[in-house]
């Protein structure tokens, strides 16, 4: 039984290959010539690979003209003919075809890329949570205000004299929110203030009309 091809991603002569109904494929041992051996190792995409005495490369990785499948035989009448012979390689044959390697390399690189992406996203998440420089102070004095409130809620700041204790507690809660949540909360407060303004305008208008009607009411 032919040996298993040592090229990465190639399943020639493996159990799965033979069970799929494909016939065994010819394999070739590594050359003894030192220079030719170096060419093979340089051509085969397998890092830090030292072939054993049993290591083989299948015929799928060689050009067809590098494989010898017949011998020339001279008939008794002097005619030359080709007859089937044991498959072998030309003396200078080098494996150069690695079509089965595309999917293998894609899987390897994709897995590595996914690991790098996951590590990068995790690092960004840690940096996002730990680095105050990512969120500069957009409002002058806000950091000072937050720090003072954090240190003590009982401190009477100049701009808090007209605020109730509930107002100050609520401002303390807002100051401790993350930036995105704070923006969302401010928008909600803005909408509430707008609705209150609309309702107040309606009430004022309603009061004016009632006052007008009262003026037009005839005296009894």
UniProtKB/TrEMBL annotation:
Family named by the database record: Belongs to the lin-52 family.
Top-level division of the source organism's lineage: Eukaryota
Listed GO CC annotations: DRM complex
Chain segments annotated as transmembrane: none
Record-linked PROSITE patterns: ZF_THAP
Matches recorded under SMART domains: DM3 (SM00692), THAP (SM00980)
Gene Ontology biological process terms, A to Z: regulation of DNA-templated transcription
Alphabetical UniProt keywords: DNA-binding, Metal-binding, Zinc, Zinc-finger
Protein's UniProt keywords contain NAD: no
InterPro entries membership: DREAM_LIN52, THAP_Znf, THAP_Znf_sf
MF GO annotations: DNA binding; zinc ion binding
Residues covered by the THAP-type domain: 1-98
Pfam family name, one: LIN52
Identification of the protein by name: THAP-type domain-containing protein
Record's keyword annotation contains Oxidoreductase: no
